Predict the structure.
Amino acid sequence: MMRRDDCLKVLALRRSDEIVVATYMAAQEWIHISPSELNYTCIGAMGQASSHALGIALGRPDRRVIVLDGDGSLLMNLGALVTIGHAAPRNLVHIVCRNNTYETNGSVPIPGADQVSFTGLARAAGYREAHEFEDLADWERAVDQILIEEGPILVELRMVPGDPYPEDFRRLGSLDHREAFRQALLGDRLKG
């Protein structure tokens, strides 16, 4: 089984100027693995990462937006799949870090862990593509193509937690980092 930090490192190696929206445990790791002013972290209302990413993708159709979601988090807002499918943003890649738990809340098992198919739900909701990986080498081989496919795309990464990274909830909700993100988007728009 893949480790989450290894999966994120594969993505970070291929990242260029994509906006990355990350939540909870993936966000805690992502800010260390791929620091950037184009990182948007969201916590506090579980399940909202995909909705935030959709808003950014619609507001900036000229930029690729990647959301690093959790399986438990996505379960809290399944309606977002239908909204994303309907809006059909071509620039959105929705990555679900699946470890079958609400990890931030003590690794409580998610309901239906052995039954739910996030790729199946995404296809039914209107996503153009849906992929599932549980082998790191397969993920490495596919990620370059996924990052250029027309979205919305859902990628389900079946994984276990990786090495512990320092948790910094103040950083994830920091107004200073929000402002730096806003300025990076504004500056980018003025350049283009």
Q: What stands out?
A: Strands lie at 2-3, 19-23, 39-42, 65-70, 92-98, 101-102, 108-109, 129-133, 153-160. The chain has a mean pLDDT of 87.
